Structures are given as C-alpha cells and as structure tokens.
C-alpha cells in the first residue's frame, strides 16, 4: 500500500479541531433570545432599586450583566449536552476500531510501511530503532505541515475547486478502496464466501451514498455515521502501517503541532478558521464532524435551489433580513460553488433567482428545520483528524499492550476525560481550540503507565484473587 | 471513573517501586508487598473519593451561583450516587475484563489444582464490590456533607475489611459471605440516608401509588 497521498490531506484537515463560527453564532443567538426572555423578568425585579439611576444607563448595564450571566449559565447548561453529543461518536469510532483490531488479524499483521515512514524499526540496537522512529516521525510531521499550509494557501486564494477536487478524490479513495479491503478482510476472518458481483453492488452503494451524504446533503445521522466510518477506516490504516515507536512519537508530536497550529496567531489552522469566519462560511463538510446540521431535506420542492439557499441563510442568522445579496448566497453555499456551477445549474433547471419572495415563501412554510434550530440544538464541531488520532491511540493500545483490555479501557477513559476538559475550555474561551493535546497527553500517560505499572499489579492481584 | 483510575495508577506505582526495590525470588515477601499494596490502594481510593467530593462541591456551588432560582439542577445525593457508580464500574471493569476475555478462549479452570470455581467467585466478588462502591459513595458524601466524620471512617474501615477478607481466597466462604453481609448493611444504611423507609419500601413492593 503505497499510494496514500490523496487521502493524507483528509486526516490532516481534520486537525481543524473545534470549528467555531457556528458555535460562536449559536452563542450570540442564544443570548439575544434569552435576553428577550429574561430581560423583562429581571427588569421587573430590579426596577424598585433602579429608581435613582438614569433608566437607559441602568438598562444597558443590566443588559451587559445579564449578557455575561446568561452566557455562563448557557455554557454550563448546554455544555453538558454538547459533551454527550461528542462522547457518543468518539466512543463509536473507538469501539469500531477496537472491535476490528481484536477480530480481524489483518490490521495487526506487519505488511510493510508507508512511503512516509521509510525507516524500518527492525534494527539491531535500541539506539538505532529510536533514531529511525524519530526520523520517521519527523518526515511524517513535515508532510502534514506542508499539506496543511498548502490547504490554507489554497483556501485563502479561493481555489475552491482544487480543494473540492482534492477532498472528493480522497473521500472516493476512502469510501471505495479502503472499505473494499476492509470488507474483504472481515469476510476472510469469518470465512464467509462471497461473490464479486454482490461485493461490487454493496461497495458501490456504500460508496455512492457516502459521497452524497458527506459532500452534498443527506440525513444528519447518516452523514455522522459515514464520517465515523471513514475516520475508523483511516485510523485502521494508520494502526496497520505505522510501526510502534513511530506511532507513539507521531501522536505526541501531532498534539504539540495541533496546539501550535491552532493557538499561534500565524498558525495555519487558526488562519483557516479565521478566514472562514470572515467570509461567514462553514468549513468543508467532509472534514468536520458536526453534532447538528441544519439542512432541508425532503421538503416538497418546486424551487430546490432557492429553498436550499434560504435554509442555509436562515441557519446562519435567524434575524437576517430577507434580502441578502446573491454574492453572499454563492459564498454561503457549500463553501463556495463557483459561478460556473450556478450557470450550469441554471442551464439545467432554468434560471432561478433566489429572490426575497421565494425565500420568504419558503420560510413561511412549516419546515422541520425550524424546530431543529432551537438554540439548545446548536451543536459542537470536532475535526475528523481528532477522531482519527483518538482511535489510533486506543487501537494501538488494544493491539500491542500487554495489559490488553485494561490498557484499552484506561486509554479510552483518559481520552474521554481529555475531551471533556477541552469542551470545558471551549465553553470558557469561546474560540476554536485544539482538541488533540489534552486527550492525547492523558491517553499516552495512561497507556504507558497502565501497561508498565498497573498491569503487573492487577495480574498479581488476579492471580491471588485479591480485590482492591 | 477517572479518579478511581488515577488512584489505581498511583497505588500501582508505589507497589511497583516496592517490588523493584526488593528481592523477586522471596515469595512471602512478595505476597507481603502485595498485601501492603492492596491496603495502600484502598486508602488511596478513599482519598481520591474525598478529592472528588471536593471537586463536586465546587461545581455545585458554581451551578447554584449561576442558576436563576438558587438551586442546582443536580443534587449532591445524585452526584454521590453517580460517583459511587463510576468508581464501582471502573473497579469492576478492571477486575473482570481480562478474566472475561480469557474465559472466551479454550482452557480448563483449575487444572493445576486451583479452585474450579474461580470464574464464578470472581464474578460474585466483582458484583459485590460494585454495589459496595455505589453505597459507599452515598455514605461517604453524606458524611462529608453533614460533617459526620465517623461515617467516613466507617466507610474506610468497611473497604479495608472487604479487601482484607479477600486475602482468605481461595477459602471463599471467608471472603464472599462477609462481603455480602457488609453489602446488605451498607445498602440498608444508604437507603435510609437517601430518605427511604420501611413504609416507602412496602408501598413500592405492593405497587401502591
């Protein structure tokens, strides 16, 4: 397996940790709503005391204070919900990876290495092995850095078509080729006889539905499921093809890089998030797992394009005036399909103007998107790269640990607690944060500690049947 | 669960250091070190339970300060229950999971002369420990809340007793029976502390509203 450059970008874009534009927007929208709710209440309570001060000043002060209080209250209340919303997919991804590692021996067999890690670890001395793994990790990290910078440059200069092409090729590779291999290995493990025609049909359906769900629109749950599956597939590839010490080194260095790239002012990922925020667009759907997404699906449509645009507009800003410019639409639509695409569409369906009237008509229709636009339902976004690296850690732990299930369980708990802490920090700081460092650090510490310290202890205890 | 894990980590660290610093061939010494490790681990677990209580207390104060009507959405009793369950689940998982994985594979239990009831007794012991951790969580937090230090001491002593009773294994009657009795006592006590009474119980069992 040598040709992996196409999908490499896939995971490293996933480094885009917490995308904040929508979350940020969700917070401000929440505030304005709550302000309306609570303002009247609080004012009634506070009015007796505020007789002396000038009324407008007091109300502004009240609003500002309420703003902050509401903010914190909201973050605490809905923070727990967001945490659960992310726990489930992360857990699912890890469960899939661990289950596969435990049952399908293909992913623990050594069949060579990637071209990105040319140095072997089967050396005579420990020093040589350490050196090789350091070199491997260095090469891998520099590839990742180069690809990330390339992506940011492309995004800044609005070469959306190139980025989309890149993403489409990599998701094609993942959805068709890797899942074909995965299916083949699972069949081999369970000794299931299968003909090529059935397999072709299954993979074709799986792949095409995946492409549609991820890059276009589809039911939210299905899209989430597909994102989890491709993260798991990618993680399995890493577990198989990265030698031991290289893998642990890469995990450690990647969390440092993530920290730097997202928090430093000139960090590539931070620039990416800020540019996306400036242009008021979402980042590419193929790289981010979002716990809620507001798409109109299955609406009775005479005017599909206008509806889609209208719904997208309504997700960004509920109070937006109905007349938004066409440019904004074009940019807000799927991270910027170009004018060409719109012309194409016009040729196919006939010129459709996303006019204020059509938008108003659509927004007047009772739609299921309105219910899901509750402030409470706004979700949190996590980059796919985070999923992948969490799963790599847990998968490697289950594949190569002597303490086996104990180590796996310990790493799993450590990663989840790290994720909790990261989300807590997100609620406090309210800007895009790297999701890797804390979790990976905890995970690595617990892996090495459990494998070397706890495992002998528990072993002895189990042998004598002592209980602690 | 995380706190239990950290306590386990620290206690294994201590034990590991002790073992490495001693003679590996000396059997009774190793067993003695293991017993010491167990006792130390129990004390550390209870210490971490206390730390967790402190953390939750701070969290509740924060929630109360920010809520509109002055009471937090989760009560301290609920947190005590959850903390106990977390501790218990983690402890149970760590005790049992490797056993379960091995149980799936081929083998004969006790072929070298050990007890044939190994899996069964392990399962029962783990179950009783999980329940006990849950009840201890409630008792411990209640003791901390109302400043009744004797409750906390009783919990610690009970934990030491249960762990100590497992030293009689494979004489299972010496470990399982006392543990289950202690569990019954702890269950009744926790039930009464959480506001239950014989009346409630009767009403529940007879399905009256």
Automatic annotation (TrEMBL), chain A:
This protein's UniProt keywords: Apoptosis, Cell adhesion, Cell membrane, Cell projection, Endoplasmic reticulum, Golgi apparatus, Hydrolase, Membrane, Notch signaling pathway, Phosphoprotein, Protease, Synapse, Transmembrane, Transmembrane helix
InterPro entries: Pept_A22A_PS1, Peptidase_A22A, Preselin/SPP, Presenilin_C
Annotated segments matching region Disordered: 1-66, 306-378
Membrane topology reported for the UniProt record: Multi-pass membrane protein
Subcellular location: Cell membrane; Cell projection, Axon; Cytoplasmic granule; Endoplasmic reticulum membrane
CC terms in the record's Gene Ontology section: axon; endoplasmic reticulum membrane; gamma-secretase complex; Golgi membrane; synapse
Entry's EC annotation: 3.4.23.-
Comp. bias (Basic and acidic residues): 31-47
Presence of keyword Transmembrane helix: yes
One Gene Ontology term from the biological process aspect of the record: Notch signaling pathway
Alphabetized Gene3D superfamilies for the sequence: Presenilin
Job description of the protein: Probable subunit of the gamma-secretase complex, an endoprotease complex that catalyzes the intramembrane cleavage of integral membrane proteins such as Notch receptors.
Notes concerning its domains: The PAL motif is required for normal active site conformation.
PANTHER family for the chain: PRESENILIN, PRESENILIN-1
Subunit-level organization: Homodimer.
Official protein name in the record: Presenilin
Organism of this sequence: Cochlearius cochlearius (Boat-billed heron)
Lineage of the organism: Eukaryota, Metazoa, Chordata, Craniata, Vertebrata
UniProtKB/TrEMBL annotation, chain B:
InterPro entries per the UniProt record, alphabetical: Aph-1
BP terms from Gene Ontology: Notch signaling pathway; protein processing
Positions of transmembrane segments: 31-52, 79-97, 117-140, 152-173, 179-198
Membrane topology, record value: Multi-pass membrane protein
One Gene Ontology term, aspect cellular component: gamma-secretase complex
Main location: membrane
Family: Belongs to the APH-1 family.
Quaternary structure (record): Component of the gamma-secretase complex.
Task performed by this protein: Potential subunit of the gamma-secretase complex, an endoprotease complex that catalyzes the intramembrane cleavage of integral proteins such as Notch receptors.
Protein name per UniProt: Gamma-secretase subunit APH-1
